[in-house]
Write a structure and sequence with these properties.
Distance between the termini: 110 Å
Order of helices and strands: HEHEHHEHEEHHEEH
Radius of gyration: 41 Å
Helix content: 25-40%
Structural class: mainly alpha
Length: about 240
């Protein structure tokens, strides 16, 4: 657990294979891609997933032709800073997977001392597990400079609810000036309001009281009495001769 935490504090992506996953679950250690500690599977053959990531990096970023094994191994050795920590006891399947990692240029650091042939910079025996971190970085020529900042609480990502509210606040603050500056948008053209002009006829020519007449309505509704509004046409007809 302390070894995983040390890699995590250095910003290194940690992939877990085998019984170490159960050990972290018993301790209640949080894993997942958001904390850079990814469990791949309890079977040792699950290591093929992270090997696939390394090979895809060579194909995509290195422009390596698929099937060119020599160029693939050269690219992963020179451009992919990865290494393997293997804990004892080691069986034949684990040793075979370790040999494949060494072929790709990834050094293997283990605390197994029986039936192990040490290879400098490739197969390294380190009996003290607390020194796995420093030994692995040195074997892969990885140099990390960490600056310690005294803060009262360790940093952590914001909860989803806080992130959504903060995003909504930022968006509303960004769009508010545009709404205040102009109410026009290309999607919705401004409305043109038209007002009917009132009658320009003199007040003396207007009828003081217009006659009432029944409005045309349907047969189902009751007849009602309407009074037309004053207009130049009606006022001219109602003017006494």
């Amino acid at each position: 657990m302390e070894l995983v935490k040390s890699y995590q504090s250095q910003g290194i992506l940690v992939t877990l294979v085998g019984g170490v996953i159960d050990q972290l679950e018993e301790k209640g250690y949080k894993t997942g891609d958001n904390v850079r500690v990814v469990p791949l599977g309890r079977d040792v053959t699950s290591v093929i997933h992270v090997v696939s990531v390394a090979l895809r990096a060579a194909l995509i970023f290195g422009n390596i032709t698929p099937g060119d094994a020599g160029s693939l191994m050269k690219y992963t050795m020179e451009r992919v800073p990865a290494f393997v920590n293997a804990f004892k006891p080691l069986d034949d399947v684990i040793v075979a997977c370790g040999a494949g990692a060494i072929a790709l240029g990834f050094p293997v650091v283990t605390n197994e001392t029986e039936n192990i042939y040490r290879v400098p910079k490739s197969l390294i025996v380190q009996e003290d597990v607390s020194k796995f971190n420093a030994t692995s970085l040195e074997a892969r020529d990885i140099k990390i400079k960490i600056t310690t900042i005294d803060i009262p609480v360790s940093p952590s990502p914001l909860p989803s609810r806080v992130r959504s509210s903060a995003t909504a606040t930022c968006r509303s603050r960004w769009t508010a000036p545009a709404r205040i500056a102009s109410s026009w948008s290309p999607r919705r053209p401004p409305r043109l309001r038209t007002t009917r002009s009132r009658s320009t006829a003199p007040s003396s020519t207007r009828s003081p009281s217009a006659p009432k007449f029944p409005c045309p309505t349907s047969s189902r509704s009751r007849a009602r009495t309407c009074r037309p509004t004053s207009s130049p046409l009606w006022s001219a007809r109602s003017t006494p001769s």
